[in-house]
Amino acid sequence: MSENPATPETHVAQPEAPEADGMEAGAQAPAATATGPQPPTAQEAARLGATAASAAVPRRGEPMFPDGTGPAADPAGSHHERRIRSFQPRRSRVSPSQADALRRLWPKWGRDIDGLSRIDLDAFFEGRPVVLEIGFGMGEATAQMAAADPDTGILGCDVHTPGQGNLLGLAERNGLSNIRVANGDAIILLREMLAPASLAGLRVFFPDPWPKKRHHKRRLIQPEFVALASTRLAPGALVHCATDWEPYAEQMLEVLSAEPTLENLHPSYAPRPDFRPLTKFEGQGLDKGHVVHDLIFRRRG
Ligand SMILES: C[S@@+](CC[C@H](N)C(=O)[O-])C[C@H]1O[C@@H](n2cnc3c(N)ncnc32)[C@H](O)[C@@H]1O
């Protein structure tokens, strides 16, 4: 998990070799040269493979997805600048298959979190009740949960471009029509783009733990965030959080318990529910011997 202080968000998604589907914090895309954008070299074009190379390959320094063809690099831009963010902006390497999924599926199933308009969830999800998952990473667990419950819409929100492409690709390959992807900061999504009482649930699985004390203010689960999120939940909606970082689990329990509009369904932590698949970060935590805690709260009526 990254410990770096946030830097200005300047990522320009760049394609990379097909096998690189993993999340690599800190992976750097090639920077634009001093002489301006350059076309890829023959070697780079070869690395992209025939399909991706024949599609429009961006020149260095150009956005990978021009307006309307994929997720924006910084959708909220200057409209909603926040000083403290729960994620670390980073340059992201996008595989050809992820880029292909984004180009084809983003216009239909993706939304940039620009903070400028309300999302009509009913239209976007064809009438399904909608659960928001914040920070789906590469989206494997999201896709599994969506497959297990096709009548529920899953709005996955993340800033990680490769993961967005991965999740859209998983949705298509598995015939899942109940997944949509929001690109940007979940706080802006909740505050500006979702109507009060519009969500049937909220999931936050293994949010960045920001273990160092000076970074605790970056943790997503804070009193203000929980109060805001709760206003977007319909009565009876469930809030499900999980973490493998013990001090963060304690903070989650304290913060969620203190929110008057929520009630804990369990005396303390929840037993691990069968319906939550193992996530990538959970697996990494378990490998390190961490103990995983689930928390399940309900929005009061
Ligand atoms: C530690 S990863 C966990 C990913 C996945 N849930 C798992 O368990 O494998 C946390 C994810 O949350 C995303 N994230 C953090 N803060 C966010 C925010 N404010 N809005 C949207 N996504 C955020 C990060 O980009 C990252 O992909």
Automatic annotation (TrEMBL):
NCBIfam families, alphabetized = tRNA (guanosine(46)-N7)-methyltransferase TrmB
Q: Where is the composition biased (Basic residues)?
A: 80-93
Q: Record's InterPro entries?
A: SAM-dependent_MTases_sf, tRNA_(Gua-N-7)_MeTrfase_Trmb, tRNA_methyltr_TrmB_bact
Give the keywords, sorted: Methyltransferase, S-adenosyl-L-methionine, Transferase, tRNA processing
Q: What Gene3D superfamilies does UniProt report for this protein, alphabetically?
A: Vaccinia Virus protein VP39
- The EC number on file is 2.1.1.33
- Function, in words: Catalyzes the formation of N(7)-methylguanine at position 46 (m7G46) in tRNA.
For this record, an example GO cellular component is: tRNA methyltransferase complex
Recorded family membership: Belongs to the class I-like SAM-binding methyltransferase superfamily. TrmB family.
**Annotated residues for binding of S-adenosyl-L-methionine:** E133, D158, D185, D208
Q: What is this protein called?
A: tRNA (guanine-N(7)-)-methyltransferase
Instruction: State if tRNA processing is listed as a keyword.
Output: yes
Catalytic activity line of the entry: guanosine(46) in tRNA + S-adenosyl-L-methionine = N(7)-methylguanosine(46) in tRNA + S-adenosyl-L-homocysteine
Which stretches are tagged as biased composition: Low complexity? 24-56
Q: In which pathway does it act?
A: tRNA modification; N(7)-methylguanine-tRNA biosynthesis
Region Disordered, annotated ranges: 1-98
* Gene name of this polypeptide: trmB
Per UniProt, where does substrate bind?
K212, D244, T279, K280, F281, E282
GO MF entries = tRNA (guanine(46)-N7)-methyltransferase activity
